[in-house]
Amino acid sequence: MTAEQQANDIMLASAILYDKGVLDAFGHVSCRNAADPNSFLMSYSKAPDRIRAEDVLVHNLEGDILTKTDKRPFLERFIHSEIYKLRPDVNAIIHSHAPSVVPFTVVEGSLRPVCHMCGFLQGSGQPYEIRNSVGDASDMLIRNAQLGKDLAEHLSDLSVVLMRGHGFTVATDTLAKAVFMAVYTEVGARIQLSAIQLGEPNYLTPQEAKNSNDTNIGQMDRAWQLWVEEINVKRNF
Asked: Annotated catalytic, 129?
């Protein structure tokens, strides 16, 4: 895949996630550079729904922009650089502040799979706690490499990490899968919150979650293709 194709996919993913309510004026999407695994592609600091392919710039794994530009990078690009550095299996990352997910980052318990579409949430565990890195001296943002490294280590080998009082990050091997997981993390949070209001949810067992996720992995492109077609019509890309 060329850098131009990857930039176009980042534009589409950003617009889809805005359309689905996973991103708003904030949040970001990146892909590992197919031409150079020691770099990644990400737009400059811009509202996701306004990103176009030409806004996507090459960054190295220190978070520095390699493309000549006067544009300001995202403050939290270190989420991306440090996960790519630690996880060679990851090729796409999405960071979101979805309001439906944030409550699960600030109360006891965790976001868990309640339906077959979000089995990948199994084991998401306790949210990343930035106070463990810098006490209360932060503004909650992952604005340097050390915080990015701490977050990446907390993520470990999972695909989704919750971030206390902040949101969540998805890291996986393809952009289509990352978009799917980001969308269904948000959907799963809404379903779980609705269920909790009725009583104690009957969560998927670990084996049910694994089986569901294994099945869905083979069909994620169906969702990506549908969402791309929809956004192309809405945005006239």
From this structure: no
